[in-house]
Structures are given as structure tokens and as C-alpha cells.
User: Which sequence fits this backbone?
């Protein structure tokens, strides 16, 4: 599931465009009629310059030039009606109106070129992120899966949130994380983490070994300058096919939630969190995985901090655990649909302050887990 608006098309609402175009022509008509009927000492011709200037703010150069031409013709009609075309006052008004129309048409052309460049850059950025963050399949081994990525705004369709899943001979491994920063650099850092995960997820026997491998990859190659300035928070999990449990290593990431089959939600708070990837060199200690119950019918919810940091107009953070505790019994896709709708409704202006990624994983009730062939499924 992806709720981001498409970037490859840039268009305006037909109703809105129609309403906008009525305004400059209405202005020309009103100014023309009033100017013709006004006393000789009153001249309203300069107001006609507002018509092409107004049009340039929302229309392209062709429409702007057309409105400018109509405004000039209106001024000619006024001049011919009130005095003559050779009247010095009206002559200067016509010349000024022609110059203003030419200038604003040129500016409309520059704006249109800039908009096309912005759309093209955003399209490239989104394509780059889609290559990095491939959709999760709706079934991985015995598990039902759904995922979603919510961008903070239409102008920020690219960021450093990441998730991936990999099948092993005995179960499924998952990662969800958040790179510090935004933009193409954050996407490059996310690609580094995901590449390391895909390369090692079905090779490292222990979950702690997988996290050590990710830490080594991030520490060696993560962009960002000074030590401690760049890092990745992450939750790395392993879900065995034949045990009703999951194993978790949290690297400074918000705790996942398990929506219990019988109702309620439980936060998976680890006793000892590992430092974020890229910061292990600053903190001594071995990485250890902690085991939690994850039985048939339970749903695991992974998320990034963009979910928790969503605020309403009063500044209240989104109460994730409280909300999802009432949504037990839902399938992964339905759960994320409900969560996204509720999250955006909570956020002020229906816009998030930070990107948010979410993954829901269900261990189906009554389905015996069987070990699948090893392999990696994308993000």
C-alpha cells in the first residue's frame, strides 16, 4: 500500500482553473465598461495591467499573453471611445500595458520551466526511492504481511525510512529503520542498510551476528561527516516458522507492538537496547536478542518515529498504542489502512511532520508453520 500522490503528473483541478480564468476577463470587462462611462478626468486604464499579472500567477505563458492581448484591445477600445487613439494619455497607457504584458508573459514562461524541472526532479527522486524500497509481498512464508510509506508532504516524497524482509531456511527476518536526515543522501544511506541486510539476512546464523554485520557496514560507509552525526535507528527481528515467538534486537528504535488475538496491544520493550547503527563504536557492550511471545492470530506492528511524532493542532502526539489496542482482529492490510486514515486525521492539516513507515505481520491462526526455501524478498 502506498498513499503517496503520483509525481509523474502535474495538473490543476479543471474547476479551479476555470474559476481562476474567469477573474482576469471579468476584471477587463468591468474596467472597460466603467472607464468608458467615467468622467473625462478619470482614467482606469492602469487597472487593466492587473489582468495579465493575475493570470501569470497560475497560468502558462500562452494564456498570460492572450489575457494581455485582450487587455490591450480593451484599452484601445476605451481610447477610441473616449477620445482618439492618438491621445497622448491613452497612447502611454497602451504602451505601458503592452510592456507589462510582455514582462509577465516572460515570467510565466520562467515559472512554467521551473515547475517542469521540479516535477522531473521529484519524479527521479521517487523512482530512486522505489528502487531502494521495494514493496513487501503480502505473504512471506506462513506470514501475512502489509507495508506502507507515508511521506511528510507532497514536496518531500523521499526520505530515509526503510523496511525489508528476508526468508531463511527456518523463518523470516525483518528490519525497519530510520536514517537520520532526508533527501537523496538519506536514500543512499537507506540503500546501504538494506543492501547489507539482504546480503547477510540468510547467512548469519544468529540475529546478533546479523546486527553486527549491519553495524560494520554502516560504520564503514554511512555518509554524513563527523562521527555521531549520522546513524540509523532500527529494529531487527526474526520470526521462526515452528515457534510461537519472535526475537528482537532494537537499535534505538521505537518498540514494536503486538496486537494480541484475544484483544489488547503489548509493546515489545527490550531490557537492553543496542545503540543505533553507526554509533556502536561509542558504546561498549555485546548485542543480544530478546525473545517475545508471538502466537497464532497475533499481529506484529512495526513503525518509524514519524507515527509517534504526528501532532494535532493542540500539539498532542498520536497515541499509537491506545488506538491500535482497539483494532485487534484485523488483517495486516486492513489494519494499516485504518491506521493511516486515523493518523492523518489526527495530524494537523492532515500532514505529517516526518515520514512514516509501517509494516504489519500476522501469524495466521491455525496455520502450521513450515520452513520455506531461503531467499530474500524486497522491501
Assistant:
Amino acid at each position: 500500500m502506498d498513499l503517496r500522490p503520483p509525481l509523474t503528473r502535474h495538473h490543476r483541478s479543471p474547476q479551479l482553473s476555470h474559476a481562476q480564468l474567469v477573474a482576469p476577463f471579468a476584471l477587463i470587462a468591468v474596467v472597460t465598461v466603467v472607464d468608458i462611462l467615467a468622467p473625462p478626468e478619470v482614467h482606469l486604464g492602469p487597472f487593466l495591467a492587473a489582468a495579465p499579472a493575475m493570470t501569470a500567477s497560475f497560468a502558462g505563458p500562452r494564456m498570460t499573453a492572450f489575457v494581455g492581448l485582450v487587455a490591450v484591445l480593451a484599452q484601445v477600445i476605451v481610447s477610441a471611445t473616449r477620445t482618439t487613439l492618438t491621445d497622448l494619455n491613452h497612447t502611454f497607457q497602451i504602451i505601458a500595458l503592452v510592456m507589462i504584458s510582455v514582462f509577465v508573459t516572460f515570467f510565466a514562461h520562467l515559472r512554467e520551466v521551473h515547475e517542469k524541472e521540479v516535477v522531473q526532479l521529484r519524479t527521479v527522486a521517487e523512482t530512486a526511492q522505489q528502487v531502494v524500497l521495494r514493496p513487501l509481498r503480502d505473504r512471506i512464508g506462513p506470514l501475512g504481511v502489509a507495508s506502507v510509506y507515508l511521506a511528510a508532504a507532497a514536496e518531500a516524497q523521499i526520505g530515509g525510512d526503510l523496511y525489508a524482509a528476508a526468508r531463511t531456511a527456518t523463518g523470516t527476518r525483518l528490519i525497519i529503520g530510520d536514517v537520520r536526515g532526508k533527501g537523496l543522501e538519506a536514500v543512499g544511506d537507506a540503500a546501504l542498510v538494506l543492501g547489507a541486510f539482504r546480503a547477510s539476512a540468510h547467512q548469519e546464523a544468529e540475529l546478533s551476528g546479523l546486527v553486527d554485520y549491519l553495524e560494520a557496514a554502516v560504520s564503514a560507509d554511512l555518509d554524513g561527516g563527523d562521527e555521531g552525526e549520522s546513524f540509523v535507528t532500527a529494529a531487527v527481528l526474526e520470526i521462526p516458522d515452528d515457534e510461537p515467538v519472535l526475537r528482537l534486537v532494537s537499535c534505538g528504535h521505537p518498540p514494536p507492538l503486538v496486537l494480541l488475538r484475544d484483544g489488547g496491544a503489548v509493546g515489545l520493550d527490550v531490557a537492553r537496547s543496542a545503540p543505533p547503527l553507526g554509533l556502536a563504536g561509542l558504546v561498549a557492550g555485546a548485542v543480544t536478542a530478546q525473545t517475545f511471545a508471538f502466537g497464532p492470530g497475533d499481529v506484529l506492528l512495526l513503525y518509524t518515529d514519524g507515527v509517534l511524532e504526528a501532532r494535532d493542532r493542540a500539539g498532542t502526539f498520536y497515541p499509537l498504542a491506545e488506538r491500535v489496542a482497539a483494532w485487534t482482529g484485523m488483517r495486516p492490510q486492513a489494519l494499516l489502512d485504518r491506521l493511516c486514515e486515523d493518523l492523518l486525521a489526527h495530524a494537523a492539516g492532515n500532514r505529517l511532520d516526518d515520514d512514516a513507515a509501517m509494516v504489519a505481520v500476522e501469524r495466521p491462526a491455525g496455520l502450521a508453520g513450515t520452513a520455506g526455501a531461503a531467499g530474500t524478498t524486497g522491501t
Observations:
- DSSP finds nine helices and twelve strands in the chain.
- The CA atoms of residues 7 and 123 lie 5 Å apart.
- The longest strand covers residues 171-182.
